[in-house]
Amino acid sequence: MASIPAPRFDPAFRIVTAGNPSPHTLDGTNTYLVGHRRVIVIDPGPNEPAHVSAVLDRVKADGAEIALVLVTHSHADHLGAAAALVRTFPVPVRRWGAGPAPLTDGETVGEGGEALRVVHTPGHADDHVVFYWHAARLLFSGDLILGSGTVVLQARDGALEDYLASLERVRRLDPAVIAPGHGPLIDDPAVRITDYLAHRRLREQQVLDALADGARTPGEIVGVIYKNLDPALHPAAENTVRAHLFKLVREGRARREGNRYHRPWQRTESDRAQRSTADGGENDGGANDGAAGDRPAGPADRNRR
Length: 305
Prior knowledge:
By secondary structure, the protein is an alpha+beta fold. It is built from nine helices and 13 strands. 34% of the residues lie in helices and 18% in strands. It has a six-stranded mixed sheet, with helices on one face. Strands 7-8-9-10-11 form a five-stranded mixed sheet. A two-stranded antiparallel sheet has the order 12-13.
């Protein structure tokens, strides 16, 4: 578990990557050390003895001490090692919505002459923040933006809208480099953020198309639009699909019945039952299913919706 050098930056910026690789964490969680003698730790990483030792060893090898611990969000692979680090260096651990001094949006935190701006960026997690190091034009992005691949969203109403707004906020910061929670440094932030926004628009259209073609549950939609996905990632993909569905329902572009979804113009079993009751119990045998607005659109029609 060697410390990974950070090209183009002076020794005020180091990375220690945890030995917790997985489909979710890529090569492992990145713990960042900012500052010279008084170090800010960003994302302590998982509570694994080998990783804790690697972080402490790197700090001591630099002749430094930990002065502050910052956390982008409370997932265990980012927060877990905090308690172990502060047993050696009893310093504040600051994160969003917890502890004696919770982080606030827009505040500046710093130690050892280095100043970082806190930006609240929900979507992946309610308590997610990023840290912008203005002097270096560097964004510590946590799980808002990854070194490769895309981010899992919360399965809650409003998560997708929050995530898109978070991306727009960090785009306005105009960082030169992104230091992600997982994966390599990103030296084309504007391109990556634009790609992330375009990817969400693509996913939204894929969800709409999957509904139009008969997929009804988040699991069925995942099976249609996530080809060759590692089975370990299916639950996470379903959460992201749910975030898209919540948005589509609110916008009136999808309807929900329990855990089943469909386009507004598609006939459902409850629609047929209600119509049968209104007709005195007679079944129309689907005679009107081809009426405009009730049938699945062909490719040309669908592109106009």
